[in-house]
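quick one, 272 residues, struct below
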Amino acid sequence: MSGVLGTYSEHDAEEAARLVGYGLRPRLRPHRDADYAALVRRYDEEPAFEQLVRRSAAGLGLRVIGITQRAGAVFGALPGSVFETKLDHYARQARQAHQREAERVLHGIAHLAIAACCFPRPEDLADDGYVGQATVPTVDQLVRHACQELSERVAGSEENSDPMTDALELERAWRVYLRRPEAGSTSDGRVAPPSTEAIVGKALRYLVDQGMLTETEDGERSVKVYRTTSRYQLQVRELAGVQAYDELLRLGAPAGPAAAGIVRVSDSGTLY
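---
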């Protein structure tokens, strides 16, 4: 391979592809694998090799979010990629079109809320050593508080004949979220739609499977605590520019790291 990338052998191309392959094993980190760590160092030290890795990833339908010794190789799916996870497929509960849309909104807002719980301040997101945490109840409470704030703002804007122009993404979510119970089932034995706590729990377990969070048990509170990894921090840094995430922080996120508590979610309903 020649030109702007320099001259590379088949071995170089194989190494670039192998680094991409390591990134597709979300729970593996460079400090646990010498070959992985060596490839990350080469990526850091050789700009041409970096471009070779980026092109190899792009050919598979992936974009490089970041590659570091702490986080490993972190990728996002390009539109139409085989690696793309659509919220419609991720939710899977609803059969009718209007129900599928509701589920998509609920699961999307759950992922946004987890990010907001884990990184409530800009300095937390910027600090490579910061470890955020979340629990199912805390994430659910954050969303319900934000939803209540939004409902009151909408009511006030309607009374003043002054349409609310901000928080457009969250405005459509709060009505759906508040109508769904926190937990529970129907009294007549029918299968109830998933509660909001069940939806949040699904999102947290998904992030654990993707190497974004780790899971521990808090014996005193009898609750599972989910803590962030460097891999997740890189993803949330991209999410910080999304309007709905910023609005959720302003509406209801805890003020500091003492609060014990995705996939980037795109407008088209893709989990990154």
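The CA atoms of residues 84 and 156 lie 40 Å apart.
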